[in-house]
Every structure is written in C-alpha cells, then in structure tokens.
TrEMBL record, chain A:
Belongs to the cytochrome b560 family. Its cofactor is heme. This is Succinate dehydrogenase cytochrome b556 subunit. The keyword Protein transport does not apply. The keyword Translocase does not apply. It comes from Neptuniibacter pectenicola. Part of an enzyme complex containing four subunits: a flavoprotein, an iron-sulfur protein, plus two membrane-anchoring proteins, SdhC and SdhD. The complex can form homotrimers. Keywords: Heme, Iron, Membrane, Metal-binding, Transmembrane, Transmembrane helix. Pfam families: Sdh_cyt. Membrane-anchoring subunit of succinate dehydrogenase (SDH). NCBIfam families: succ_dehyd_cytB. It is a multi-pass membrane protein.
UniProtKB/TrEMBL annotation, chain B:
Its cofactor is heme. It comes from the Bacteria. Pfam families: Sdh_cyt. It comes from Neptuniibacter pectenicola. The keyword Signal does not apply. Pathway: Carbohydrate metabolism; tricarboxylic acid cycle. The keyword NADP does not apply. This is Succinate dehydrogenase hydrophobic membrane anchor subunit.
Amino acid sequence: MNKKRPVNLDLRTIKQPLPAITSILHRATGVALFFGAVFAIYALGLSLESEAGFNEAVDMFENGFIAKLIAWGSVSALLYHFFAGIKHLVMDFGYCEELDSGLLAAKVTLGLAAAAVLISGVWIW
Amino acid sequence: MVTSITSFGRSGLYDWMVQRVTAVILACYTVFMIGYLAFGAELTYDMWTELFQCTAMRIFTLLTLLSFAAHVWIGMWSVSTDYIKPTGMRFVFQSVTGLLTFVYVAWGIQILWGI
C-alpha cells in the first residue's frame, strides 16, 4: 500500500452520513453513562438509606435544578443508547444493513430517541 | 496470533457476545425501572424499600450491576483503543475505568444488602 496517499481523518472536516452520527452518539452516550452512573448509584443509595434520605432524594429531584438537569441528561443518554443498542441488535440479525434500510434505521433511531428525550424531559420537569 | 491482553474475554468474538447478552439484561432493567417509576403508583419510602428487599429484585439488580460492569469494560475498552493512541494515556484511562467499575460494583452491593 502506498503510504503517501493523502489521508483525512479530521472529524471536523468530514461530512458524516446519518448512520455514522447514530454510531458516534451511541459511543458518546455510552461513555457519558459510565461516568453518569455515579449520580444514579448515589441517588439509589441515598433513597434506600433511611426515610430521611429518601425524602432528601425526592426533594432533590423535585426542586433541585442541577439534580433535574443531571437526571434528564442521564435518562436522555440512557434512552438514546437503548434505541441505538436495539438498532445494533437488529443489524446483528442481518437487517437494515443496506444503504436505504440503514439510513431508514438511523432516522427511526434518532426519531424515537428525540421523542423519548422530550417525553422524559416533560416527566422530569 | 496476537491476543489482546486488555479485552474482556481475550477474544473479540467472546467480547462481542458478552456485549450483546449484557445489553439485553441492561435493556430489561431499564424498561422495568422506567415502567415502575413512570407508570407505577406515587412512590413512597415503604414501597421503595419493599421493592429492593425482595430477593428477586436483588438478584435482578445484582445481575444488572455485573452486566453493567462487563458491558462497560468492553465498551470503554473499544472506545479507548480507537481514540487514545499513546499507550501510557490509554493505560491510565483503562485503569481508571476498571477502578471506577469496581467501585460501582462494591458500592452497589453494599446498597443492596444494606437495606
């Protein structure tokens, strides 16, 4: 292979097709969820620790702006990762691997995730 | 054949399968939890502790926690080997990932059996 071929891997200058965007978002939300889990486990521990802890956790999710923001962000990332993961499993079974069907699957994934993010936002706020 | 020493099962195919099986478990837990919290009755402390005192729920939660650990390791490993090229930085990143994963598991077990 000729090593002098021009190579462009600068993500800022590459136009990403829709399935590539769903893929990178799946990765980004995965990494975010790994670090976001610290808040989820903290909230679980607090809520199960004692009745006072439970009330504190409830109050945090009902009145705390930052807590709501973190909760919405985490739930959004989780729901996106969930739908993109299902798309992955569908593709593992050999469906939606062609250009047209792949693009459609990407659109459906983004659409479902956007709806879920909006609905969870309404639920949390 | 060169085998990677940092992948989860030391084989790509094994990792691939573990990633999918754990994904299904995590998806089931997600559906259950969202269903319980969003569509169940208004949550009270008694309901909440009763739920997590139930043996089936503890098994389900521990299964999810361990699936999370395996799933996270494979995912973070894939992402870090793709994007973090300097070996030292990748080693640090993967070490932090492993440590934090262990903390999650230990912390989660303490919460579950501390009720």
